[in-house]
Each structure stands twice: as structure tokens, then as C-alpha cells.
């Protein structure tokens, strides 16, 4: 800082001048020294955050620039702004946080209970793995067992994702105080101390371990859960020493496919059939690529803040969002196709899962724009539900198609299948044709309506 003049660094082409809202966003993102009132706000107890600090200084850009390779350095001059420019924590008046006891709210916020977008990102790779394992498992998995196992994994993921968020906020508390979107997280604003955060993390970890012990094939699941939990906990540190923290996060989250297979008795690393082992690996790799895209889009909201705070990420390194999402999206769809081909899946899978993923990724590549962070926020909130849900829909359609082939004898499946007569719940006289036809048609209508509605929403994001 020179006198009353401050310098800020931002990527080329990231700013548009003229908007007061953009000026406020740039102030939060780029001020090299946070005002004393704002710093006190971040460190104050949560109860004191309902009052605003006194007016202080904002930054308005002037045309002066200096050059540096890959960056643009602009000079910002100080002017007076009101305290309304600063984020202020307010108790929630609706949603799940509004019904919790006040002392629980900071801990629920640490777990991101009110923001399910990240939970979708954690959970859907498991649901994809379970749906895929149901397609290839021998003997065939019953729908009731598949549903109950999926529910158990959902509960576990609430605690796994909660623990990951707690340790992330604890490690990143100093960074969060410099990033506008993260300044009011409980540890950053002082509502929870770092020690309390660590204790809460270990409590969630213990609960998660207890849940895994109740899974089918619990011993095999434990061997997968331990490295998954360890790696998601170390992810925040990756932002300090590499430009590829998204890759680090993708490893444990995509490993969910292997853990899900183990839970249904399909051991991915001991398969006699090499093609199925390669298919399982391809499916896991496709999820790893998706998680990189998903977290990259999320980080696009904070690129300028991350540069100021010294946070490293692929969103900082790779500025062309269209090219990045297009290239990785093509790889993801290609891996899904490879998984289907190696596993011998039917055209139902290719149409719904592969075609659906290609459609949504094309829309994402077209709509994500750093100048419109609300679009990145929308994709982070709903992207895993949409893209992961499409993959799950394709695999479940394949699973029920497989059951229909063998139960009511529509067509002989080209895949090697077990003797279905040994499974009493699969006997045709217990499952009338009309019941299965009604179920399939109902699911089809729901999927068509869901896809139409999502297309309508995404087309209006521009």
C-alpha cells in the first residue's frame, strides 16, 4: 500500500467496469488490506454480527494499469462507502437452520446442512456405484436390498461430507476471512473456535465409522472408507501446495464406486472377468473427471479472491471455462461409454446415461461464465444432482431392463447371467407382467418430465 492507494491483482479479462454491484464484489475480492472494522467483524462472536460496523473505506478502480505476464495490476483509489457493503451474519428465518436451537446452528452450518449441493457431489458417486454393481452382481441384487443399501450410504455421506467441511473450514479459516463468499462461515466469523471444530470433526468421524460397521460386507467397506475419509480431510491442504486440488478431491470421491461395489459383494480388484474390472475402473475414472469439473466450476466463483488470498486451484490456472469443461466433459462421456461397452450394457444405458451426460455437460460448458458467478453457484448446487442423477437413471434403467429380460422373458440377455431360478423373489409367478410394465412406464414418465423441467431451467440461466 502506497499512501492512500492500493494495488490488486486479477486475471486478464475478468473485470467489467461500470457496475456498482461489480465494484462492491471487486472490493471484497481485491482489497489488499481488509479494514479494521471488517477484520473485527470476522473475529467477533456470532451474536455480535447482527450489527453493522461503522462506515469505512471502499475501493473504486481507475484506468491506471501496470503489466505483468498473465496478470493485470490495476490501481485502486480509496473513497468512502457505507457499512452496508460488508457481509453481515443474520439468523436464518426459514429452512432447517431456523428450527434448530441457536447453539446448534453454527455446527449445522459447519456441516453445510442447509446446502445440499455438496452432499449430492459426495453421494452420487456411491449411488452410481451401487446402481452399476446391481447390473453386474451375481447372484442378482433385489430392488429392496439395493434401496436399503443406498439409504444407508446416504446417511453415512451426511457425516462424511460434514466432517470434510468441518476440517476444510478449520484449515482454511484465515483464507475464508479474505474471501467474500466464505467470510461468515462459523469458524471464520468466530462462532466456533478451532478447537471446537477439531472436536466436532472427530465426533463426526466416529459416528461415520459406526455407520460403516453396519454396512453389508462391512470389513471390505472399511478398507475403502479409511483412505476415502483421510483423503477428503487432507484436501484443504492441497490448495496450498498444488494447482490441482480438484484432482486430489476427485480421488477419494470417485473411489466411492469401488466401495459401493464391495458393499454389494462385487469385489472390483478380485474380479475373474478382466473386462468387468476394467469397466468398473472406467466408471470410477468418469466420476473422477466429473468431480474435477464440478469443483472447478465451484472455484470459478472465487477466482479473484483466491488470487488475492494465495489459494491455488485449477480455476486459477485454467481461465478458459468453455475449453476446460468441453475437453474434460468429452473425456467423462467417453469413459462412461467405455464402461458400458466393457460391461456389455444395453442401449438403454447409452441413451440415458451417456447421452444425458453429454447433453448436460454441453449446456454447462455453454453457460458457465466467470463474469456471472451466480451461474457457477447454480451448477454447484444442482450439477451433481442433474449429471449424477442422469447417470444413475441410466444404470437403474439398465438394471430394471435386465430384470425384465430375465423375469418375463422379453429377450435373452447377451451378458453372462446367474441362474435366476435360484432367487425366489425373481420367480415370474410372483412378479406379474402388468406390475413390471406399470412400474417401467411410470419411471419413464417421471424421467421425461424431470428432464424437460431441467432443460427449461438451464436454458433460462443466461
Automatic annotation (TrEMBL):
Any one GO molecular function term: 4-hydroxybenzoate polyprenyltransferase activity
Biological process, per Gene Ontology: ubiquinone biosynthetic process
Transmembrane segments: 120-141, 147-167, 322-342, 348-365, 377-397
Range of residues in the leader sequence: none
Keywords: Membrane, Transferase, Transmembrane, Transmembrane helix
UniProt subcellular location: Membrane
One Gene Ontology cellular component annotation held by this UniProt entry: mitochondrial inner membrane
Membrane topology: Multi-pass membrane protein
Family assignment from sequence similarity: Belongs to the UbiA prenyltransferase family.
Cofactor names: Mg(2+)
CDD domains associated with the record: PT_UbiA_COQ2 (cd13959)
Pathways per UniProt: Secondary metabolite biosynthesis; terpenoid biosynthesis
Name of the protein: Para-hydroxybenzoate--polyprenyltransferase
Amino acid at each position: 500500500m502506497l499512501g492512500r492507494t492500493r494495488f490488486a491483482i486479477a486475471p486478464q479479462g475478468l473485470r467489467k467496469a461500470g457496475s456498482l454491484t461489480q465494484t462492491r464484489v471487486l472490493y471484497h475480492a481485491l482489497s489488499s488490506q481488509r479494514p479494521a472494522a471488517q477484520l473485527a467483524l470476522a473475529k467477533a462472536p456470532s451474536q455480535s454480527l447482527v450489527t453493522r460496523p461503522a462506515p469505512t473505506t471502499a475501493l473504486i478502480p481507475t484506468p491506471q494499469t501496470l503489466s505483468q505476464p498473465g496478470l493485470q495490476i490495476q490501481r485502486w483509489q480509496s473513497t468512502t462507502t457505507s457499512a452496508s457493503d460488508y457481509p453481515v451474519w443474520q439468523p436464518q428465518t426459514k429452512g432447517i437452520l431456523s428450527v434448530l436451537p441457536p447453539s446448534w446452528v453454527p455446527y449445522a452450518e459447519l456441516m453445510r446442512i442447509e446446502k445440499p449441493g455438496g452432499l449430492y457431489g459426495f453421494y452420487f458417486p456411491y449411488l452410481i456405484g451401487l446402481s452399476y454393481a446391481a447390473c453386474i452382481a451375481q447372484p442378482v441384487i433385489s430392488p429392496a436390498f439395493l434401496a436399503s443399501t443406498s439409504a444407508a450410504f446416504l446417511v453415512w455421506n451426511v457425516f462424511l461430507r460434514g466432517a470434510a467441511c468441518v476440517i476444510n473450514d478449520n484449515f482454511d479459516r484465515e483464507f475464508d476471512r479474505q474471501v467474500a463468499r466464505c467470510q461468515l462461515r462459523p469458524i471464520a466469523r468466530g462462532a466456533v473456535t478451532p478447537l471446537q471444530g477439531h472436536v466436532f470433526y472427530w465426533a463426526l468421524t466416529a459416528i461415520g465409522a459406526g455407520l460403516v460397521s453396519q454396512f453389508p460386507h462391512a470389513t471390505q467397506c472399511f478398507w475403502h472408507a479409511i483412505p476415502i475419509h483421510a483423503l477428503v480431510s487432507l484436501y484443504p491442504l492441497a490448495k496450498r501446495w498444488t494447482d490441482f486440488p480438484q484432482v486430489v478431491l476427485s480421488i477419494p470421491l470417485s473411489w466411492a464406486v469401488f466401495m459401493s461395489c464391495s458393499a454389494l459383494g462385487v469385489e472390483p480388484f478380485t474380479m475373474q472377468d478382466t473386462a468387468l474390472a476394467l469397466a468398473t475402473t472406467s466408471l470410477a475414472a468418469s466420476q473422477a473427471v466429473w468431480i474435477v469439473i464440478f469443483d472447478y466450476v465451484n472455484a470459478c466463483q472465487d477466482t479473484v479472491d483466491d488470487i488475492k488470498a494465495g489459494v491455488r486451484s485449477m480455476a486459477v490456472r485454467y481461465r478458459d471455462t468453455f475449453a476446460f469443461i468441453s475437453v474434460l466433459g468429452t473425456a467423462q462421456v467417453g469413459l462412461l461409454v467405455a464402461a458400458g461397452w466393457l460391461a456389455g450394457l444395453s442401449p438403454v444405458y447409452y441413451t440415458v446415461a451417456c447421452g444425458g451426460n453429454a447433453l448436460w455437460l454441453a449446456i454447462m460448458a455453454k453457460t458457465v461464465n466467470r463474469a456471472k458467478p451466480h451461474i457457477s453457484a447454480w451448477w454447484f448446487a444442482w450439477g451433481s444432482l442433474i449429471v449424477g442423477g442422469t447417470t444413475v437413471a441410466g444404470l437403474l434403467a439398465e438394471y430394471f431392463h435386465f430384470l425384465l429380460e430375465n423375469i418375463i422373458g422379453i429377450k435373452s440377455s447377451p451378458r453372462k447371467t446367474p441362474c435366476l431360478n435360484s432367487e425366489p423373489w425373481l420367480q415370474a409367478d410372483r412378479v406379474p407382467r402388468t406390475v413390471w410394465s406399470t412400474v417401467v412406464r411410470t419411471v419413464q414418465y417421471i424421467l421425461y418430465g424431470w428432464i424437460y423441467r431441467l432443460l427449461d431451467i438451464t436454458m433460462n440461466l443466461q
